[in-house]
Amino acid sequence: MSAAGLRVELHLQPTTELDGIRAATESEAVELDNAMYTGNDHWYQHLTVTSELDRSALRERLSAVVDRVTGISAAEFDDDTYYVLVRVEEPEPFVVTSVARTGAIPHRVWLLDGHLSVTASVSDWSHLRRVADRLEDDYRTFDLLRSAQVETMGFPLGNHKFKHAVHSSIPASQLELLRTAHREGYFDVPRSVTAAELADIVGISQSTLSERLRRAQDALLGVMFGSQ
Q1: 25-49 tens-digit pLDDT
Q2: Going from the N-terminus, what domains does the chain have, and what CATH number goes with each?
Q3: Calpha distance 135→143 (Å, rounded)
């Protein structure tokens, strides 16, 4: 199959409200999972926020820098991760509109280590040049961190719905087992670790590992295909 386009990662100056949210909540990272325009430069934004603040303090800090805090829920897999829905004012330029108006597809927008990072898909190098011209107009400077040819253009922002559904529907112990198996290469083709090696890593018998992995995979597929 021939390549359908280019997947690129860009670094921009953190000029959006994400930076204000990060500073106010003392966050390690803030990710924009989705954004919906409501008019007059205002947006509803679904965010994933990593902060050591408790939920009450996080709400108080957010309320000081956004128009409205609609909801906060804690991730089961990590005490320092929260899913947040807020209404904020994002005067132009806003990175989502800057990228989308060029015809590029934004996949991920997150703020980490002083950089606003954007992963997006473009059709070809000339399309990337048009995106670059727009970003230079809107943000004065940006860095192209990496690029790679891809066979599909992929989906825009909004995959947070599946992520949130997984974290709210699957027990933390099953998520951690799946995460460890993925990190160690158990699902690679060919596998980087055997079942016996993975069982040693997590400290359980191979038969117990097999049963728990089947249960975790069944729970994940249940979220995907609606059996739960």
Answers
A1: 999 889 998 888 888 888 999 899 9
A2: 5-150 (no CATH), 170-225 (1.10.10)
A3: 10
